[in-house]
Amino acid sequence: MTLDTNKNKNIPYYDVNFDNIFLTKRDKQGHKQIIRGVSGNFFSGELTAIMGPSGAGKTSLLNVLTGYQISGVQGTIRCNISSENGTGSLQYKKESCYILQDDCLPELFTVQEAMMMSCNLKTVGLSRKAKEYLINDILTNLSLITCRNTRCHHLSGGQKKRVSIALELVNNPPIMFLDEPTTGLDCSAGSQCIQLLKKLARSGKTIICTIHQPNAKMYETFDHIYMMAYGKCVYQGASTHTVDYLAASGFHCPIYHNPADFIIEVVKGDYGDHTDMLAHAALEEKWRGNHPAKICNDPVDTYKNSVYPKQRIDSIGMPSEWFKFLVLLRRSGVQIYRDWTISQLKILLHLLVGLFLGLTYQNCGQDADKAVTNLGFFTVSTVYMVYTASMPAVLKFPSELCMLKKENFNNWYKVHTYFAAVMLFDMPLQVIFTSVYSLTSYLLSNQIRDWHRFCMLLLLQSLSGMSGSGFGLIIGSLFNPVNGTFVGVICLCCFFLFGGFFILLVHMSKFMYAVTNLSFIAFTVEGSMQALYGYDRPPLHCPEEAEFCQYVSPAVLLKDIGMDKPSYWTDVTYLVCVIVLFRIVAFVLLKRKLSIT
Ligand SMILES: Nc1ncnc2c1ncn2[C@@H]1O[C@H](COP(=O)(O)OP(=O)(O)OP(=O)(O)O)[C@@H](O)[C@H]1O
């Protein structure tokens, strides 16, 4: 279907046409029909508002039109992209962007930095100067130039909304969907936002947004109103035709009454249930405004000095996933550096805890009388490393999910690119944290001065930290932060129980001993004891004040606690496998979470 015939052929104009759309969702009572056979046309150059009372199905319709919601959808969505080059839904998704209600901005970055990141992730072939020029252009047009150096978490609600729009404008998408862009904004910021959208629409874009009861002036700004009630369309036409439409259906809008308020009152049922009658009346074409709305002759007059005069940005192309990986890697690095709670504070805490535990277990390392206490020290150290690595990881995905969902859906990057960048930063960070803790506690607890053994211990402790963070990522992908913290702690307690200290391996039944194979903590403790007491370590020192030292011989100690098999490298291999496995599972779960709609 070609909806557009007389527009400038050099510039792609995309109209969206949908026909007989149904959306059914399952809930406890069975199937619930949320959208009930709606159809319509949204033209380029027009600013369309999807309106309706709360629960009418506005967001659901937007989710369906954007492709955000796939399951339970019936009907057809067409866009003249498909009729032009046959690339269908993929191309439609590429040409459109969806700005969700929550802004989900990179909080620790300035507006300028966030824009540059968006540019780097969505454009290729532009010099840095050209990118800066483009950013300047967009920020000027969106009145954001004065806050370009402000970090996103310091922006006002209206500024945040405009930054969300600015980030998507970088690659100049011809179709823009926005879910409640004025929610949370005051009257003037809301009007400013709608004026901006109108300006963008006039540059040739198809702009569709959901909106809650706008004031009369804002209502008139919209070219096209798509009114919904109870999952049906009860009016589609120009905002200026609303009063006439309602009058033709027998509802007379009082003078000085906001038509937007009046039509909502009518469709909500304040004057009786007339949904079916209005749904039928809404099929009439005559209420539609003169479409398509007049498009500026110069399509880039929104961006007067644009670096893309009369040229679509997609002709410049998208960067490779490798380049995006590098951009995301840098973003992760800057984020870690700027968030002092996940970098500087953690290093300080690891140092302090290392001092505290080192002093608590002072002189346990070489004292034959305190050999079993030393086993406690390694268990506590492993518990500490695993716990401190896993709990932040439990919160990692939930805290970034909003931004990840938005950016991934709008084709900024693929999930595996994001995941790889995040993981690459996580591992060296774990090694740094572990080194700070291990070195301090190792020296203070007076362990054997053998750097080879220390390095073996460090390797194991680092691997246990990475396993812990992998475990945390799995929990974070499965549960929300509250449930995740709870479930995570319970699972870790079970792992700790089978760690080989709270109950010695030699005191377990065969079955329970086999269960310890599931605990990566058991492997870490065993490997640590092997590293420190194995490999023909000379006899331990028995202090004079002790009457009898049972464990002068390290080999006897290892035998008595059931860790005498030389298994250090097996333990290392096991932990490496656990790290890989946990991360693969976390990735699959994250991908699944992002695709559930
Ligand atoms: N997963 C679901 N299971 C069952 N019902 C659902 C589900 N998701 C949405 N609904 C129902 O679908 C209807 C439409 O929801 P939607 O969010 O699209 O409404 P809306 O018009 O955007 O409302 P609001 O203006 O309040 O945001 C509501 O009645 C809602 O309760």
Automatic annotation (TrEMBL):
<feature type="domain" description="ABC transporter">
    <location>
        <begin position="16"/>
        <end position="255"/>
    </location>
</feature>
<feature type="transmembrane region" description="Helical">
    <location>
        <begin position="371"/>
        <end position="395"/>
    </location>
</feature>
<dbReference type="InterPro" id="IPR043926">
    <property type="entry name" value="ABCG_dom"/>
</dbReference>
<feature type="transmembrane region" description="Helical">
    <location>
        <begin position="572"/>
        <end position="590"/>
    </location>
</feature>
<dbReference type="InterPro" id="IPR013525">
    <property type="entry name" value="ABC2_TM"/>
</dbReference>
<keyword id="KW-0547">Nucleotide-binding</keyword>
<dbReference type="Pfam" id="PF01061">
    <property type="entry name" value="ABC2_membrane"/>
</dbReference>
<dbReference type="GO" id="GO:0140359">
    <property type="term" value="F:ABC-type transporter activity"/>
</dbReference>
<dbReference type="GO" id="GO:0016887">
    <property type="term" value="F:ATP hydrolysis activity"/>
</dbReference>
<protein>
    <recommendedName>
        <fullName>ABC transporter domain-containing protein</fullName>
    </recommendedName>
</protein>
<feature type="transmembrane region" description="Helical">
    <location>
        <begin position="340"/>
        <end position="359"/>
    </location>
</feature>
<comment type="similarity">
    <text>Belongs to the ABC transporter superfamily. ABCG family. Eye pigment precursor importer (TC 3.A.1.204) subfamily.</text>
</comment>
<feature type="transmembrane region" description="Helical">
    <location>
        <begin position="456"/>
        <end position="479"/>
    </location>
</feature>
<dbReference type="InterPro" id="IPR003439">
    <property type="entry name" value="ABC_transporter-like_ATP-bd"/>
</dbReference>
<keyword id="KW-0813">Transport</keyword>
<feature type="transmembrane region" description="Helical">
    <location>
        <begin position="485"/>
        <end position="506"/>
    </location>
</feature>
<keyword id="KW-0472">Membrane</keyword>
<keyword id="KW-1133">Transmembrane helix</keyword>
<dbReference type="Pfam" id="PF00005">
    <property type="entry name" value="ABC_tran"/>
</dbReference>
<feature type="transmembrane region" description="Helical">
    <location>
        <begin position="513"/>
        <end position="533"/>
    </location>
</feature>
<keyword id="KW-0067">ATP-binding</keyword>
<dbReference type="Pfam" id="PF19055">
    <property type="entry name" value="ABC2_membrane_7"/>
</dbReference>
<dbReference type="InterPro" id="IPR050352">
    <property type="entry name" value="ABCG_transporters"/>
</dbReference>
<dbReference type="InterPro" id="IPR003593">
    <property type="entry name" value="AAA+_ATPase"/>
</dbReference>
<dbReference type="InterPro" id="IPR017871">
    <property type="entry name" value="ABC_transporter-like_CS"/>
</dbReference>
<dbReference type="GO" id="GO:0005524">
    <property type="term" value="F:ATP binding"/>
</dbReference>
<dbReference type="InterPro" id="IPR027417">
    <property type="entry name" value="P-loop_NTPase"/>
</dbReference>
<feature type="transmembrane region" description="Helical">
    <location>
        <begin position="415"/>
        <end position="444"/>
    </location>
</feature>
<dbReference type="GO" id="GO:0005886">
    <property type="term" value="C:plasma membrane"/>
</dbReference>
<keyword id="KW-0812">Transmembrane</keyword>
